[in-house]
Amino acid sequence: MRQEDNVSQISVGVDVGGTFTDFILLDGESGTWRTAKVPTTVGDLSDGFLQGLRELDVAPSAIDWLVHGTTAGTNAVLERKGAVCGLITTAGFRDVLELGRRTRPHNYGLSGSFEPLIPRNLRLEVPERIDAHGRIVQPLDEAAVRAAVERLREMGAESVVVHFLHAYANPAHEQRCAEIVREIWPNGHVVAGHEIIREMREFERGSTAAIHAAIRPIVTSYIDRVAERLKDSGYARQLLVMQANGGMMDASVVGENAAHTVMSGPAAGVLAAAEIARAAGVGNVITGDMGGTSYDVAVVVDGEPVITAEKDLAYAVPLRIPMIDIHTIGAGGGSIARVDSAGMLRVGPDSAGSYPGPIGYGRGGKEPTITDANLLLGRINPDAVTGSGGHAPLQEIEAAIDAKIGRPLSMDTVKAAKAVIDVAVNELAAAIRLISIEKGHDPRDFALMPYGGAGPLHAVEIARELGLPRVLVPRFPGLTSALGCILADVRHDFVQTVNTPVRELESADVDRWLADQAKAGKTLLEREGVTVETVEVRHEFDLLYQGQSHVIRLPQRGASFDPETVLADMTAHYQERFGITLPEMVPVLVNIRTTVIGVRKRPDLALFGGGEAKAEVPDASGQRPVYFGERWYDTKVYRREDMGDGSWIAGPAIVEQLDTTIVIDPGAAGRTDAFGNMIIDVNANAASAEASA
Amino acid sequence: MTIDPVTLTVIEKGLQQVCSEMDLVHEKTSFSPVISEAFDRSNGIYGLADGRVIAQGELGLPIFVGVMQETTRSVIAERQDLEDGDVILVNDPYLGGTHLMDVKMVRPFYYRGRPWCYLANTGHWPDTGGMVPGGFNSTATEIHQEGLRIPPVKLVQRGEMDDDLVKLVLANIRVAEERIGDIRAQIAALATGARRLTALLDRYGEETVEAAIAELEQRSERMMRSHIEAIPDGTYAASAYMDSDGVVNAPLEVAVDVRVEGSDIHFDLSRSSPPCQGPMNSVWASTLSAVYLAMKHIFPDVPLNAGCFAPIHVEPPEGTFLYAHYPRPVAGCAAEVSQRVVESVLLALSEAIPDRLFAAPAGTSGNLSMGGFDPETGRSYIMYYFSGGGYGGWWAGDGISNGCSTIGISKSQPVEILEQRYPILIEQFALREGSGGAGRYRGGFGVRYRVRLLRGNAKASFLMEHGRFGPPGILGGDAGAPNVIRICRNGEMTSPEHLSKGEGYLLGEGDWIEVETPGGGGYGPAGERAPELIERDRLRGYFDAGPGGPDAPANATTRKESA
Q1: What's the ipTM?
Q2: Acetophenone carboxylase-like C-terminal domain location, by residue (chain A) (predicted)?
Q3: Rounded to two decimals, what is the model's pTM?
């Protein structure tokens, strides 16, 4: 691990999204920043990468830190366009990945399809068996393994998954099998299930390994290509890659951690939100990332994004690695509004997508969307539409909203547009409410941090709906994921299933297992060689009462495993969360988790502050009528770059910047802080706003 | 009172959210794996006057779509002495119930000192006493053999739990120690519902919420009517068959006559078989709910409230096994009979609206129960294993494999967890080749699994279906493969006389059970199947026994048995 001062250095964060690739550069020495946005180049993603760097106007050789988030893997899995994988598994169980847990795609309705990640002809069995206690029931048939590898190679497999029952309890067979496969296999794309997660549940562990194998060849060849081209262009340092857990890793270990890159872009956004809020002195934040097709919600508690290991990437595609817990609902700027056959107004989940997009983009869209409603109500500037750069066809929008919403509901066009926004806001708020409550939080203890191009348009309304007192709009809502890349620490997670009653455990055993996991993490950090300030190790316990299925996760307190502390914490958690205590029941330690974090010195976010405000209330750049509540307000329009530390704007107001539009509703007021954030008090002055109306 | 479209949508979602939060608390705190892992529970809000469903959790078990309002109706009829803070406990099948294991709680909800509605939930308890562990018997001839029957009694009176009653209940069920946790979970869910509903009423006002509920009901009704109007007027008939009632080895017929008139649809089940001796009788609430559920599967977009059912008319099928009276045994009603009722409705409507229908799914909960004593842990256990099967081909694709019962949404338990909890080794869990019915869109595949008892003795019972007849295809598609059970004791193979049902099979160390679950029916003639799909299926070995197919492991086992 190198030790050096990285505060005065140049850091670049790059987030490759589905439509755009975002760049942000922070120059610690001069205290400046630059941003860029280029279309994602689907053919060769590295083209867009290098083009963006050119637009940042920085010599690659001058960059000290380059951190990259990518969705290359996520989409490959979702579209079943991953690498051709083969599976070698326990005799009798080759269909586990196809049969899943006996579910169906929808609660009601019996239609729908499912394609497993590895097709059946590429799933082969070998004789071997280990039981639930990790005892060998049948030895591994090594000759069968060799034969299976040869067959998979003949069938054109690019990567191989070794997945045996109960490998979490005893990985010996998986290890030996993988060893044999690696002797024969021509490349590094071989994974044994327990190497990714050592956790019980064969379908979930197998699916996680299959996701890993499906994207490993894609992610590694992509990262290799980027690294090579960067090197050619003069970049001399390490290429770092974001992970779904909100940490980063060195490109050299991406192969063995390929599954961890899934959803890393959105994770980086939440991480940035947590860091921005922490710098601004706000610990509890709910993030709302609204783009064109979806709204991503996550919860940050005491400055830490909530992590989960229970995500499904899609129907019957579970991924059980620790990820920042992001919940997605199908409501974005492009979500289509319609009246259903019961006469109910619905918004989403169908989306106009990025092409043709909303009617307002003028590219042939015919269905009214949330963005169109915002244009009609004056919230988005119709003369500078982000998606098209041109003028929005307001008359077309009016006609569509009138025909498809207004007339069926007997409302005039403006009221219909407002109804679309109100229904959307309610959906978004409901999603936040359910997610925060599911995690045991009262949303009123949180500030809302909106980002993404469409997030700040609706944040005040959502906050009011939920009773959140404050909205914190970061300086660059449209570049949050790219920024998150720069702010991340190096992070690795480990898990092992224990599944033993707490009172039957020897503390020394648990301490030894935890120490082993910590050591594995530290070794990995050493190998990566990323410069870090300190190394932090955290242990957590997944617990339940014997007979239950849902675990609760509690952090370890104290230096070693103490059953009494764990039991007391568990009782307290139950009392607080569900209002019940269960003294009759037997507590069980299901999994032990270890997180090893190489803490980096972070760039100082104060460089986003525009310096002392010139005047408390900045000059407006324009004025236009905007519809709020039940009527039009003559509303001042400001430019974000005119704000300084201490700038104050009372609603109704619109603040425009390149990557988003902030709406400050009547009765709310925004103040810019030293970090360039705009903090909106949603109930600043309800009374006086009414009076001046 | 007119209500604006936005407020209406907001209240609709608000009521839904109250139910979802109840479901969530119920599920997360439960001990019964059938509730927490298999989601066999339901929570909802029901009308004050007549128990009509106002809202019900979308994550609840589908069979309860129509059951819970019947339960609430029975409680209203039986108990006029309810007070704020009371919670009623009930599982009586004849009073708006299903089987005894579905234990319901009903709580009158008071707003500002006045009764306003009912909150109710149901959770599947792993045991409620009776002749077989787990309650899924297949040979009872009266309800008293099936377990503890609880009429609507006050479990909680003005906030105070009746500990004597709890003792009485717990003394009559197996593995009772975890049930106090389930009782608390169920009460906690109702309390959560009460808090959230109070908040909703505080925010929007009683009058607005009441107006919204009435409006939402009308709109669901309108939507369902518009769907029914699209079905050509006329009469449609179909029959679905149960293998047997478990006691008399002869099939039972569910015969449905459907009459569509404009926007109303009538279901007459009166040509069905008479009441049966064994536990395959269905109580009225289950039968009615099954018809509602079939319609909800065909038209899933209609929001769930009483309005959704208004255009659906079901004649009470008095004199048939679908309208059971005391003391007829009913253990199979929710898990099996209801699925045959659903199937009969799907089959009847398949010719009328082929572009909305699916061929018959496996349509059984496929319950294997094993109860025994594990000498290694020194503990008794009851293992439930519900298996899935193939779904029917549908208008644009093949059926999925290993789908869950149509009346459920429960996940099966992982092999690794089953082997940890019980003294068994599962030697195979595989796709059952060739089990999907052929068709333009073929049925999905069933499952083959084999369970070997490692230690001690155990008693096994089976409550499955489609052993005699495979799930039928529609529009010229073939039927899926029927359910098969094999039991090997001391090296000797048997199958239950009733094919898919049987109980009291005593197993010793090394004995094993193999089950092959049904595949789904095919959609449309097999001759119309696209050649590339046939080639794909061939490549994947879906219709032959490739490596890992039935031959290899089965032979291995035979060798072991004979050795």
Answers
A1: 0.90
A2: 523-675
A3: 0.89
